Task: structure prediction
Amino acid sequence: MPDAVGLLADYGEVYPEVPAEAWEPYRELYPELFSGPSWRLPCSCFLVRSEGITILVDTGVGPPGLWDWTAEDEGRLPGALDDLEVRPDDIDIVFLTHLHIDHLGWNADLEGVAFFPRARYVVHGDALAFAQTRPKLPHIRRCVEPLVDRFETITGDIELSPGVTAFSAPGHYPGHMALRLASDGQDAVLLADIAVHPAMLDEPDLRYVSDLDQAACAETRRAVLPELVDRDVIVACGHYPGTGIGRVVTRDGRVVWEEAR
Ligand SMILES: [Zn+2]
Result:
């Protein structure tokens, strides 16, 4: 479900080691992710239902106007849930893959009150501990601090509900987690921010400035890729074009993410 889209930064700023021309093949493959020299970043969340349990994976950028980026559109998650006839109090679990500004925005309303009143808010303990070392950041102050007593912290891989397993995916943020889903013989992987740009599936060693531990990120991408490429596995990422739900295939010698139609 979409929450926001906007211009994050110039590619040269956030991938300083990558020359501009190296982006050209990806500009052709993923035109929605480019606006001139800038990275046009969609921020979507995923709703997972399993055996009567409704799980929201990440909560987006949040109410409009809070994040200092060049937003095109923000604040869509509540409407997107409404379109699915899901009310905030229908959410049983909010699973937070990590606590960057674009993944926690609807944790709380503008007053710091939990937006999903019944939900268990589940997050890795290392992510919470790291966020708490940054209490002055506005998104931590509004979306983490008021909910500290509500968070349920985990220490590693965990089955959230039947067929929905969170797994450690180190590198992008302390305690960063991704998810594997299995339903009726179909497997899926929700990448979280294992590869924030799909070019990083093709070139797992690309260094992105917001990957806190870039070596661990590259290792995590290399470890997960064999599970994704040319397999009957749905691969989803909230920062990819369209719905963010697709597959990873080899095409013309490149590893390419294609939206499922
Ligand atoms: Zn992100």
The chain is about 20% helix and 30% strand. The first helix runs from residue 11 to 14. Residues 100, 102-103, 193, 196, 239 surround zinc ion (CB under 6 Å). The first strand starts at residue 2 and ends at 10.
